[in-house]
Amino acid sequence: MQQPLRRFKAEFFKALGHPARLVIIDQLREGECSVQELQVVLEMDQSSVSQQLAVLRNKNIVDSRKEGTTVFYRVRDPMIFQLLDIAREIFNNHLIDTQAILAQLGGEGLGDGEALS
Amino acid sequence: MQQPLRRFKAEFFKALGHPARLVIIDQLREGECSVQELQVVLEMDQSSVSQQLAVLRNKNIVDSRKEGTTVFYRVRDPMIFQLLDIAREIFNNHLIDTQAILAQLGGEGLGDGEALS
DNA sequence: TACCAGCATAAAAATATGCAAATATTTGTA
DNA sequence: TACAAATATTTGCATATTTTTATGCTGGTA
């Protein structure tokens, strides 16, 4: 594999490497979503949401469609959901490690029997 | 999903967001690999390889085993290969876009009929 | 035209990441 | 003990990413 392609793949994963962007993609599982709606879900201000969307757009992960003054976003390739599903499985397989790292991150870990979404 | 877990997932993807680290994981498909071997494959100096391995280790993506003075690395959960496989499929589905971005990155794109690895 | 809503982009400050050079650590061996 | 090999960690610095805040653009409507 050539250098540029490697860099490109890395960029792709890097685009997924942000909490807000992961939430955005997860939200888009249910179909199109306007920036406003995302803003509510993410509890972030409009500008920040737009910026994160720009990152996903630049990596061709999402597409946008304008209707009047509102813009709807959707995932370009639904296969990305499979990707996230597998990632979730990996997390579940290593729940114990995950907890350790969460603790490290300053979180409280998961409650008894609580699953990862 | 709580904040800390989101951050953790993001960290996971961020760990994959580096060309060298992707090559390392791909190399580990064939099984264990010593740092030396990785050094050769990556054409990077020892220190840099160790640093990248440290990132993967900190995210629990790889494990290491010491035998004498050499350290062997392996992937913790083979399911990560599935993850990369799906990512590859996504890339292939969007070859044209990919090419555009590669060009943007200064690469030469893919040759005629050349597949992505 | 004037104005507002909904998004996008820009600019600046804070934070994190990547990289290279130097230094440490660990293990085996003379 | 002294030394070499293999790997890890640290340090300093350049770059990139994140976050906030401010500004710009476009489409609808009075």
TrEMBL record, chains A, B:
Residues 1-95 form the HTH arsR-type domain. InterPro entries: ArsR-like_HTH, HTH_ArsR_DNA-bd_dom, Metal_resp_trans_reg, WH-like_DNA-bd_sf, WH_DNA-bd_sf. PROSITE patterns: HTH_ARSR_2. GO terms for molecular function: DNA binding; DNA-binding transcription factor activity. Pfam families: HTH_5. Keywords: DNA-binding, Transcription, Transcription regulation. This is Transcriptional regulator. It comes from Candidatus Viridilinea halotolerans.
